Amino acid sequence: MTAYASRLERFAAWCERTGTDARVADVRTVRSYLAELSRGQVAPRTLSAHLSAIRSLYRWMTAEGIVEGDAVSAIASPKLPRDLPGVLTTQQVEALLKTPDTSTPAGLRDAAMLELLYASGARISELAALNVESIAWSERVVRLWGKGSKERIVPLYRRALEAARCYVEQGRPELLAQAKRRDAAAGLHPLFISARGNRMSAAMLRRRFHMLVTLAGIPADIAPHAMRHTFATDLLEGGADLRSVQELLGHASLSTTQIYTHLTPDRLKRAVAQAHPRGE
Questions:
Q1: Cα-based distances in Å from 119 to 104, 108, 154
Q2: Catalytic residue among 147, 159, 262, 269
């Protein structure tokens, strides 16, 4: 509320300084105010917050009969820059994948979790929903269920399959020993289980991921989603086409996938050099 009041006070001060009657302010008036803020190096997100406060003020004044009509609501918000996703370096990925202690059942599970994250570009929630049956070992693919219950099938590289198989055959049975599974009645075989034999939630997997990140000496603000971003970026760097990456990530729109092209300028330069008639 303090920030809201501060923005309106700043607008009122501008109106007084410029001799503007706020009761008859129109689209041009408010745009002039926003333009002045922009010239003062106010960031787009802050401009959007100022406009939001002014819109709220004029909605209230319209409802109270102080002004006739709310022309301000027609002003479009400034375009906000899209934040580029965090991506791990090759060295960080290697360090993270080597972190789990695979001499323990939990370590085998953690190793499988990390390898599958990097191999499939899965969201952590998608990983939590996996069952043992979700992996087709002979076809070397994993079946994922994304947003809107959309199914997609993603190929897995050999190391990820080996890590998953080692966990399923050696680590998972030990974790299940003397444990009662809540999923047993439904005939399900959750892939990632806790020491109590229950399916691990996305929150539990996320906590394990953060623990492993810390052990690997990687910045603590790295989230599991960074593995998804790294998966996409590495594919594009390796020459994969954008449509294929879109399908692998389960993006409904290609525009969502295109953000990764900002992270791969070298790949784009190579594409131009190789494909353009005068690219040399």
A1: 22, 16, 9
A2: 147
Q: Is 189 a catalytic residue?
A: no
251: tokens are 């993006």
Strands 135-136 and 151-155: unpaired
pTM confidence score = 0.65
Instruction: Write the pLDDT tens digit of every residue in 22-56.
Output: 887 777 888 888 888 888 878 778 888 888 888 88
Does 147 qualify as catalytic in the annotation? yes
Residue 123 annotated in active site: yes
Cα–Cα distance between 128 and 56 in angstroms, integer?
A: 41
CA distance 107 to 104: 5
Residue 89, CB-side half-sphere exposure with 13 Å CA sphere: 7
Distance CA 117, CA 226 (A): 10
> Bridge partners of 145?
151
Choosing from 10, 31, 55, 225, which is the catalytic residue? Answer: 225
Task: Assess contact for 92 and 216: CB atoms under 8 A.
Answer: yes
Q: How far apart are CA 133 and CA 142, in angstroms?
A: 9
Q: Considering the chain, what is the average pLDDT of its residues?
A: 84
167 is catalytic: no
**Contact, 84 vs 263, CB < 8 A?**
yes
Q: Is position 269 annotated as part of the catalytic site?
A: no
Q: Which of 119-123, 236-240, 252-256 reaches the highest mean pLDDT?
A: 119-123
